[in-house]
Amino acid sequence: MSKDFLKAAESMKKELIDIRRDFHMHPELGYEEKRTSGKVKEFLKSLGIEYKETAGTGVCGIIRGKGNRTIGIRADMDALPLQDKKNSSYSSQVKGKMHACGHDAHTTILLGVAKILNGIKDELRGNVKLFFEPAEETTGGAKVMIKEGVLKNPDVDRIIGLHVEENIEVGNIGLKFGVVNAASNPFTIKIKGIGAHGARPNMGIDPVVITSHVILALQEIISRELPPTDPAVITVGSIHGGTAQNIIPDEVVISGIIRTMKTEHRAYVKKRLVEVTKGIVSSMRGQCEIDIEESYPCLYNEDNIAQDVLEAAQQVIGNEHVKILQNPSMGVESFAYFSMEKPSAFYYLGCRNEAKNIVHPAHGNLFDIDEGCLPIGVAIQCNAAYNFLK
């Protein structure tokens, strides 16, 4: 059946390209995806696929087969606040907004999946839920969709998703077992001292010096308190304080982000960041306020779901084109919210083509994909769903 899926997907390649280029020319940021979700709903309606709106601009479609099993397939829809500098006929027509992460391709692929699987729904011994997620790049529409019940009625048994990858040649996929993406926790620390003349530091409490000690000590949480075999990062990306060279300010604000690969490390690093910061600040006579945000969790691939995806992909593109990835990504991915709720698998779809100079990194203003990846993504998603439901 897998060859039939690839043949079916290839037969609609022009349609897929046209859809993707339309999305690419009209990018929308998180929770602004009104045009995009409107196109999605229009496409589903034309096929007679029922759907409901969710998470503001999100869409949840359902293809009802003849059985009780249900698989969810997810695509994200939002773009990035970035100027498109590609010289192509389908470059962004919206100033300062661009599909620089491939979400236009993900949405297109899921629409292709919807069309093919809806055409054979009488053969499906179960249901397919189609999750079109808004705001993946910001707060993550997935958690809102989950809260609004997209995993219920009927209950979803497993979820799969994909992401285009510019470091994998078109025609191949990359699959990682176990942890795939890091969890993230942005933080802000306000360190308060007492302002003074720069020539008389003894008359004040210098928050700049205190901040310097805090920044260095935070790095030691990673290098000396976590196993060196387990990746984690604390990055301080912003420091603000002071107005002149000869004035000791009364406060400094730093902000940064924690990235961890294990749930237990996430909890530990957050706890230690607070303990270390408060300890140093109080020992140096200052005061502090600490705010740690809860952002995306770790993305875990469940072994049996990942194995099923691996086999489905091998049936479509051959064993030699399925690459097992060894290292996780320190980047975050809101599919993690789904993977925390249901057995899931997430993989990377190659979109690189050096011959066409399609080599530029995601989140960059020259990013593009080899559109030959679109039917491959459609076929693998279809095959994985079909295998599960047969």
General description of the model:
This protein has 2 domains: 2-181 and 298-389, Zn peptidases (Aminopeptidase, 3-Layer(aba) Sandwich); 183-292, Alpha-Beta Plaits (2-Layer Sandwich), CATH 3.30.70. With 390 residues, the protein is an alpha/beta fold. It is elongated. It is 36% helix and 26% strand. The longest helix has 21 residues, at 263-283.
Write the layout of secondary structure elements.
Layout: H1 2-11, H2 13-25, H3 34-46, E1 50-54, E2 58-64, E3 69-76, H4 103-119, E4 126-133, H5 141-147, E5 158-169, E6 173-175, E7 178-181, E8 183-192, E9 196-197, H6 207-225, E10 232-240, E11 247-248, E12 251-260, H7 263-283, E13 287-292, E14 299-301, H8 303-317, E15 322-324, H9 335-341, E16 344-352, H10 373-389
Averaged pLDDT? 97
Instruction: Specify Rg, calculated over alpha carbons.
Output: 24 Å
Report the principal-axis shape.
Answer: elongated
**Helix fraction?**
25-40%
CATH architecture name of the largest domain: 3-Layer(aba) Sandwich
Q: Proportion of β residues?
A: 25-35%
Q: Return the string of H and E elements.
A: HHHEEEHEHEEEEEHEEEHEEHEHEH
* End-to-end C-alpha gap: 11 Å
The CATH superfamily of the largest domain turns out to be Zn peptidases
Organism: Clostridium moutaii
Pfam family, one: Peptidase_M20
Protein name: M20 family metallopeptidase
Domain Peptidase M20 dimerisation: 187-276
